[in-house]
Amino acid sequence: MNRRRLLQGLSFSMLAAKLSGTSSLYGQAAEPQPQPARTFSPNDRIQVGFIGPGSRGQELIRQLLRTPGVEIAAQCDVYEPRFAEVNELVGKNVPAHKDYRELLDRKDLDVIYIATPPVFHASYSIAAMKGGRPVYCEKTIGFTPEDCTNVVEAARKTGQIFQVGHQMRYASWIVESVNRVRKGDIGEPTHVYGYWHRSDNWRREVPNPSLEHLMNWRLYRESSGGLLEELGSHHIDIANWVFGEQPQTLLGTSSIAVYHDGRTVGDNVQAVLGYSKGRRMFFSSLTDNGLMADQVWVYGTEGSLQITLADATFYKRTSKMITEASHSDVVQKGVETGASYNADSAMPYRGPGHRVNMKRDEDPTLTACKSFMECVRNKQQPFANVDVGFRSAIACSVGRQAMYEGREAKIPQLTA
Amino acid sequence: MIGATLNTVTQLYCTTHPAMGTEYSLYLYAPSREQAAAIAKPVFEEVDCVDALLSNYRPDSELSRINREAFHHEVTTDPEVFRFLATCLAWSERSQGAFDISVGKLMKVWKFFGASGALPSPEEIAAAREHVGWKKIRLDPEQRTVRFLTAEIELDPGGIGKGYAVDRSVKALRAKGVSAALLSAGSSTIYAMGSPPGEAGWKVRVPSPHPGGGTISTVVLRDTSLSTANLSEKNFVHEGQFYGAIMNPGTLQPVRGMLQVTVISNSATDSDALSNALFVSGPEDQAALLGEQDCALVIREQIRESETQAAPKYEAIRWPSEVAQRHLTELPTTKEKVKL
Ligand SMILES: NC(=O)c1ccc[n+]([C@@H]2O[C@H](COP(=O)([O-])OP(=O)(O)OC[C@H]3O[C@@H](n4cnc5c(N)ncnc54)[C@H](O)[C@@H]3O)[C@@H](O)[C@H]2O)c1
Questions:
Q1: What's the CATH class of domain B200-340?
Q2: Which residues of B touch A67 (CB under 8 A)?
Q3: The CATH number of B62-155 is which of 3.40.50.360, 1.10.3720.10, 1.10.3980.10, 3.40.50.150?
Q4: Contacts of A52 (CB under 8 A, 6+ apart)
Q5: CB contact under 8 A, B77 and A366
Q6: Could you tell me the pTM of the whole model?
Q7: pLDDT tens digits, residue range A308-349?
């Protein structure tokens, strides 16, 4: 029985046990010994091998070009026109490969970046880690539940540095706000509501119809978890961070309301994720919206927090007013009747907002890349490590299937 | 392939997109509204991409990051931004400092940043001197780093950024096989690609610098760009003196005595930079600044000493079209302008 089969046959509780490292399933297969990661001196330039330099990938490359001491040393893509785009961006010819294995076989690479569509994330990350390279992989870390588990397992076994593309964890204003929430600034956080209401059809223009699935992989079930995975995963990650745990359940629905254009994933989604102690996360995404696309609200027993892609604002309840009443005025004169509307009372519990002061304003993706390189040089695990990647990916992966089947998903837990 | 040469029935569409504090307009021929929108989308994405690189209003732009950090340490930047900065410095050198993107601090002192200007105190102006000057910007091509030699240097891409965005967008249009289009960055920088069906090119009207003063010249452009610098955007009047938002980095004051400069040049980056450089530099330096193929129409204020004297004065350098003197002579003098 090969390893893949074996894993497919596992129940989720077995998976969890396996992840905890107590399972006897480990250590049977004769696998190549992980190579030790390279040690860097301060002047060494870190050589990056880049797999999947599409739209997100080129954004990452741009940020890597702004990261000191980094070289884009090799690229891999199945779509050849990308090579010229990368060369233009990098300002020189970057050795190019059409097969990721060729890239991984190169001896001159120190770290691997992966920004292919999600179906390839797990196998490419695992191969890279087994080849002795730290990995920065875009979210979500895996497409199937088994993928997610395998990536965690490989990271633990090889001890490799692994960072997931949840760059919101590196946004100064989000870090500051979540830290404040975790310290109790809005009491006990009980709900996280994420809205990501885009205003386009989510379609890429395709130069020729044979490229439809390669370029519009987001629109088809076999290659995409749809809006929940592509957008929701970022918000689920924020909820996980706020609550300090991963979700246990997901109940969701998705449909096509506008774009009956052959896509098989929904153009809108609503999902409720259950956390311990009755805490909930709600995620909504749809394709039409005239205002701000992306915002997360955190509701606590003593206030709320609004996070957007640019800033964060705390709202506290205005304290309830208690004053002494005069017996002569109220009881003897009596109370007066009249009109009740008072504009100031329309939102009785929302005081004025207090914007979070940002310490740094740099693009979170740049911060994420710089931080990754620091981890590589100092041999540390990143903040957005493999466990973080697992906790959002598993919810999307298991949740997506349950949504198709119209049932509540039980989400397998990651154990230490 | 969508272009005027095909036999398909095409219609002229205009799509607009807000960016960089203005509105970009793209005129092109397409068989349908949807197709026009599909062509425009990636073009405006280029504009947004340049905005994300260069905006000094967005704290997360690469330029803002450089502004924050380059005095404290060498900032590694990407090749595109590095090339852009090198181009800016080349224009500073060529114009002997008339063009200078380091005027950010000065723009703030004169309250032209996010506002329409106000007179600073002489002390504030004097204090700005240290924070302005292109020679205080060091680029290291080997390391691809930027460094400021004094504190509080602030780069302001206002005199070149729109031109750069237009050039990038034109490249995207060409890559899409578009053969005829006109792209305008809020009318201050325009690129004319190809020509409308049956026409020699795209007509662009240069207005009188006096609002409501009509057209002083009409040029027909094809595969070239045009930029205009004037003071109509942000300005204020103090004690009868008119102040506009184009800075003379040498005097640390807004430029005086100049009304409008329009430049035609093959690259939009160049026409944008050149129109601003000419606006700042003295008349004797102007002709030398132009490249061999460039054309300029420079309109200078002239103090009227008698009613018979023509005012203002214009100078046309290789300008390809007639200039309607009549509209210029009807211009009010500085003093009258206060009433505008
Ligand atoms: N962190 C974020 O904010 C963020 C934002 C956007 C996208 N993403 C993620 O980035 C990934 C890529 O998204 P995108 O929008 O750039 O998609 P894309 O389609 O633009 O780019 C993917 C690239 O991978 C290439 N590719 C496909 N299969 C390949 C293979 N087997 N080997 C090598 N290359 C292959 C494609 O040709 C393409 O160039 C996705 O996982 C997405 O979820 C993350």
A1: alpha beta
A2: 76
A3: 1.10.3980.10
A4: A76, A77, A114, A115, A116, A117, A120, A138
A5: no
A6: 0.83
A7: 988 899 998 655 445 566 767 767 676 777 666 544 444 445
